[in-house]
Design a protein that fits this description.
3-stranded antiparallel β-sheet, about 25% strand, alpha+beta, 7-stranded mixed β-sheet, single chain, about 300 residues, 10 helices, 16 strands, BirA Bifunctional Protein, domain 2, flat
């Protein structure tokens, strides 16, 4: 008898496979990804950043204070649980192996209201953690997180639902944040060039501030986010100037005023994709090149 179970399409390279926007990496890709993260982590350490790790979930009420649901509701991946009164029904739901019963998904009617979401950027946890804090000197943080963006389509390592993001976050004065972003802008371009990546720096088109706010005009005059694009258009890194938005919304102070914040973000799987292109699938060679380039100042 023919197998009637339908498996969702996969996107695969020699060293990874992607299904439903979720990736499995084989050892060469794992090692290359770790080598890249080691370089970016060292950049943070050299700048004086403290490594921190934040909870894997964000409270919806915290994200509301950051206009998340005004600007990025389409990206959200809510986390919930099965309602206690529906546990028995879910446990006994029929499943014939082909998914025809509908048991391949949990109906929304069986789920409790979602109070938490998976993060779509690593820095959100940092700003929630710093809520109510005050400092007279800049705060630098290096953090990495599994992030989730419910995109309208998936495309190999270029566009995943779940991916890894390393961020170098700066909290301080406007000048300090600008210097942090400028320093890493130059470093990203030089590092990319040493690996054979011809990165194109472009203003990002996705919104950050709510569209009807005064900050939107400022964003048009001086873009708050710049992306670094591989030749196929994949954004593998970005520099982000939030101005004093998070400082105001989360009561984060620097020198007795709402702090300015900025971050440098690296999509690690996207770097693997770009280097897989440049090194024609030889990820071992790419990993060796990353280690050599990472040793350069």
């Amino acid at each position: 008898m023919a197998d009637t179970h339908r498996t969702p399409p996969r996107s695969a390279g020699a060293d990874w496979s992607v299904r439903d926007g979720l990736v499995t990496l084989d050892e060469p890709a794992v090692v290359l990804k770790a080598a890249l993260d080691a370089v970016f982590t060292r950049w943070g350490a050299e700048a004086g950043a403290r490594q921190q790790s934040y909870p894997p979930l964000l409270r919806a009420e915290d994200l509301r204070t950051l206009d998340y649901f005004r600007n990025f509701p389409h990206l959200g991946s809510p986390v919930t649980r099965i309602r206690p009164d529906r546990l028995a029904a879910v446990a006994t739901a029929p499943y014939d192996g082909a998914g025809s019963s509908g048991a391949t998904a949990l109906p929304a009617s069986d789920l409790a209201d979602a109070t938490h979401l998976l993060p779509s950027a690593a820095c959100y946890g940092c700003f929630v953690h710093l809520t109510g804090s005050s400092a007279d000197t800049p705060v630098l943080v290096s953090t990495v997180a599994q992030c989730f963006r419910h995109e309208d389509h998936h495309d190999g390592l270029r566009r995943l639902w779940g991916f890894t993001m390393r961020e170098l976050v700066c909290v301080g004065s406007a000048d300090t944040v600008r210097a942090h972003l400028d320093r890493h802008r130059d470093r990203i371009l030089a590092f990319g060039a040493s690996l054979g990546l011809a990165l194109d720096r472009q203003p990002a088109t996705d919104p950050f501030f709510q569209k009807d706010g005064a900050r939107t005009v400022m964003q048009l005059l001086a873009p708050v986010k710049e992306e670094y694009l591989h030749t196929d258009g994949t954004a593998i890194a970005s520099t982000n100037n939030h101005r004093n938005f998070f400082g105001e919304r989360r009561a984060i102070s620097h020198a007795h005023r709402p702090a300015f914040t900025g971050c440098v973000a690296f999509g690690l799987e996207r770097w693997v994709h770009a280097l897989g292109d440049v090194f024609e699938g030889d990820l071992a060679a790419a990993q060796r090149a990353v280690r050599r380039a990472g040793e350069c100042p």
